Amino acid sequence: MASRTFETAAGPRSEDALPASATSAVKIVIVGGFGVGKTTLVRSVSEIRPLTTEETMTQASTGVDDLAGVERKSMTTVAMDFGRISLNDELVLYLFGTPGQQRFWFLWNGLFDGALGAVVLVDTRRLEASFDVLGRLEESQTPFVVAVNAFDEAPSYTDGELREALDLTDEVPLMVCDARNRESSKGVLLALMQYLHSLAMTSEAT
Amino acid sequence: MTQVGEEWDEGGPERLYVLTGGRSGFDETGLDLVTLIVSRTPPQIGMQPEHESILRVCASPLSVVEISAHLKLPVSIVSVLLADLLAEERVEARAPAPALPDIDIIKAVIHGLQNL
Ligand SMILES: Nc1nc2c(ncn2[C@@H]2O[C@H](COP(=O)(O)OP(=O)(O)O)[C@@H](O)[C@H]2O)c(=O)[nH]1
Ligand SMILES: [Mg+2]
């Protein structure tokens, strides 16, 4: 029987259980390159220890050195971390730390559908790592804010320099944060929500 | 589905194929990563162990993606397992909050974050 190999899941610790009254959930996506601080930010605000979900991607590839032209399959495991914040008795917020490469996003169908918005985390040592993500979010019309995670050794730029380098319009909120700091990370999420609030007010007024 | 050979690779794709009867889920199920799942019945003896685990961890509401993390199974597989349980009315699915812009939800999130 399949049960021989399935590790029976322990499930959440009792103190991590959501109340029975929890009726709906919303999500925010934290997106950025490897090592930019996504998991750190999620951890600093989440009420549960961040959890990981994995998908396996099968890629068919025909090797150039493969004389027979035989199709080979390689498998890659792609992981996504997430955390959770209970906002009140009914509403739960999930935070997803999503890999920056958009070619992985399809693995979690609907990840951005119905998301409140996104936080693009940026490391000023690797600004170019964000170009792809920013373009994608604009295309999909996902509202986002940009947060520079201030690593000690990283060069600092003025607001104007960053906006120009990242090709950001003036409306997009841009801020500096320390993903290790709870208040700072909370501030980033609040900035996104205030931005969404202003967008919603504008669209209601027209 | 119970006839499985001795040399069984636990994490391998073959196993996932057997688990889901060859279906691959998510799209068809209409479940979101953050759809909250709650058990309606306790686990029963003789159930497929994955189904049994889902019923157990969902004694209180749990999102699809948390089920995936706790069971160490991809969301795509969990969705198919959940489709079975939903069809048998063994679990209840609480759909995510409606699409934006919904000013009340935005305000609730702001308020919740400020109170952290
Ligand atoms: N100095 C500094 N280090 C940070 C900061 N945020 C994250 N780190 C470190 O950077 C490393 C990568 O962070 P992680 O959150 O795993 O990045 P991820 O790949 O985007 O999830 C970890 O060792 C963190 O401790 C920060 O704001 N300042
Ligand atoms: Mg990470």
TrEMBL record, chain A:
SUPFAM superfamilies: P-loop containing nucleoside triphosphate hydrolases (SSF52540). This is ATP-binding protein. CDD domains: Ras_like_GTPase. Signal peptide: none annotated. Belongs to the GPN-loop GTPase family. GO terms for molecular function: ATP binding; GTP binding; hydrolase activity. Keywords: ATP-binding, GTP-binding, Hydrolase, Nucleotide-binding. It comes from Streptomyces reniochalinae. InterPro entries: Gliding_Motility_GTPase, Gpn, P-loop_NTPase. Pfam families: ATP_bind_1 (PF03029).
UniProtKB/TrEMBL annotation, chain B:
InterPro entries: DUF742. It comes from the Bacteria. Pfam families: DUF742 (PF05331). This is DUF742 domain-containing protein. It comes from Streptomyces reniochalinae. The lineage of its organism: Bacteria, Bacillati, Actinomycetota, Actinomycetes, Kitasatosporales.
